[in-house]
Amino acid sequence: MEVKDLKPELIWRCFDEITKVPRPSCHEEQIRAYLLDFAKKHGIKAKTDDCGNVVMSKEATPGLEGAPVVVLQAHMDMVAEKNGDVEHDFMKDPIETYVDGDWVKAKGTTLGADNGIGMAAALAVMIDPDLKHGPVEALFTINEEIGLEGAQNLGDDMLSGKILINLDSEDDGEIFVGCAGGIDTTAIFKYSRSLSPEHFIYLRVSVNGLLGGHSGGDIHLGRANANKVIARFIWECSQQWDIEVASFNGGNLRNAIPREAEAVFGINSEHHQAVVRHLNRYAEEIRNEYKGVEPNMNLVIEQVERPEYCIDSKTSLALVRALYSAPHGVYSMSRDLEGLVETSTNLAAVKMIDDDKIRVTTSQRSSVESRKADIAGQVEAHFQLAGAEISHSDGYPGWAPNMESPIMKISAEAYEELFGVKPAIKAIHAGLECGLFLTRYPHLDMVSFGPTMTGVHSPDEKLNIPTTEKFWKHLCRVLEKVAGV
Predict the structure, then answer these.
(1) ∠ CA(327), CA(80), CA(472), 5° rounding?
(2) What is the pTM of this model?
(3) Is a pLDDT exceeding 90 seen at residue 476?
(4) Catalytic site positions
(5) CA torsion, ordered 123, 128, 129, 132, to nearest 10 deg
(6) How far apart are CA 283 and CA 281, in angstroms?
(7) pLDDT for 54-100, tens place per residue?
(8) Rounded to whole angstroms, what are the CA distances from 33 to 90, 127, 150, 203, 383?
(9) Strands 45-48 and 54-58: what pairing?
(10) How many Å apart are CA 43 and CA 37, to the nearest integer?
């Protein structure tokens, strides 16, 4: 069965079309064109702002014109991650989807259900002839995954609704009423190139097969960080033998736990076999440490040709020490909501840039603004000690829960009516755009919900089919209840 043949037809047909449109973060031109064409094709009013966000408007069902305007919100972009052995151009190629039992998956890449299924739900509402509802606006924002750019720069006159349903959550049976704020901290190491010693042999050590995942939603699961796995091994080697580091690269995105990393380093040829034996011991130890968490961890060491240059010894040692000792993971848990991560940090990516710089990207999150500043400050101080230059992103605010929210109560009642169980009311450690919407539209009453997804931000991403049907029914019932139907 193909994705477009799944039921309910409208939402799956829209999702199937979306997966065929390239839309990596920062490159939403093609998906924006698709949205505007969709609106034109179906006779729907649409407008854009200077940032590139799109809003579609649908009139109320006759007789329900007096109902409050509801904004359905999703983001256009997707995280562009693929397995190392997969050839895929995210700027040109469609996502190759397939059905596997109760799940929709992609072949070796991220699926883009985050937030393609939210977009699909909003589009399906726009063209459903049978759904009874008040006035509806569908807001599609750009570049949510890298900097929340669309929400940061949303035009002042784009929305008229005072109720907003964010369609970017990933757990059926849970309604979210709050989220963490975030900030990125970047460290730049400047180095001098030194000629690589001729009497050394050079080895590439790499790790792959890690689960990775969302640095907000999955940070509490204790998954391995590829950058730290490699840094730890090289640091251990540096404690026993003289080494020269030629390169270090790992991870890609600020909001993804790194799944793969590799480094090339040199060592005196007489220690070659000792290093290989050490890696074998190290691999056994670290697999045991992550037993039951990282079943497919793969560590490889191989000899490579001598590079012309290495990183100067002082900087390479500072880099390895800093990566090995850098904070990563959960920093504190919420005292207000049981089970909620309050504050965390992600050692996201290490990249060689230009010929004399190494960029280390990290991301901090917290539902408490002062704690967010504190953990970002600790990361800054850590890399300052290693001699790096530090910068921070502008960051984004959290969304404080309103336990008296009318749309929260309507959403909870609708879920219980349909499925006979009360949904959980939660806040999420991941960043949502809702906090930023409040800075521009402070009157908004908001909730967030969605179907079950796992492996988000990694090629293991998958979307649950039965809960997608529940998500669609829930959304429709909420719209009916808001309209008094």
Answers:
(1) 100
(2) 0.74
(3) yes
(4) 77, 144
(5) -100
(6) 5
(7) 999 999 999 999 999 999 999 999 999 999 899 999 999 999 999 99
(8) 17, 18, 16, 47, 42
(9) antiparallel
(10) 10
Helix (H, G, I), strand (E, B) or coil at 417: helix
Q: How far out from the chain centre does Cα 412 lie?
A: 26
H helix runs in 69-158, sequence order: 113-127, 149-152
Would you mind telling me the total number of residues written for the chain in this entry? 485
3-state secondary structure of 94: coil
Q: Could you tell me what percentage of the chain is helix, strand and coil, using 3-state DSSP and rounding each to the nearest 5?
A: 30, 30, 40
Which residues on adjacent β-strands are paired with residue 265? 203, 245
Count the alpha carbons within 13 Å of 311 in the hemisphere toward its beta carbon.
24
Q: Rounded CA gap, 139 and 287, in Å?
A: 45
- Residue among 247, 403, 446, 237 at smallest CA distance from 324: 237
Give the phi and the psi of residue 225 in degrees, each rounded to 5. Answer: -105, 120
Give the 3-state secondary structure of residue 361: strand
Q: Where are the beta strands (DSSP E) in 180-321?
A: 181-190, 193-195, 200-208, 243-250, 261-268, 298-304, 309-311
Taken in order 314, 318, 319, 321, is the CA torsion positive or negative? Answer: positive
Structure tokens at 62: 């006759």
Separation of alpha carbons 484 and 462, rounded Å: 35
| Strands, sheet with 45-48, edge to edge from the N-terminal-most edge strand | 45-48, 54-58, 136-141, 70-75, 163-166, 445-448, 174-179, 424-428
Phi, psi of 473 (to 5 degrees): -60, -40
Sheet arrangement for strand 462-464: 97-100, 103-106, 462-464, 453-454
Mean pLDDT, rounded, for 5-18: 97
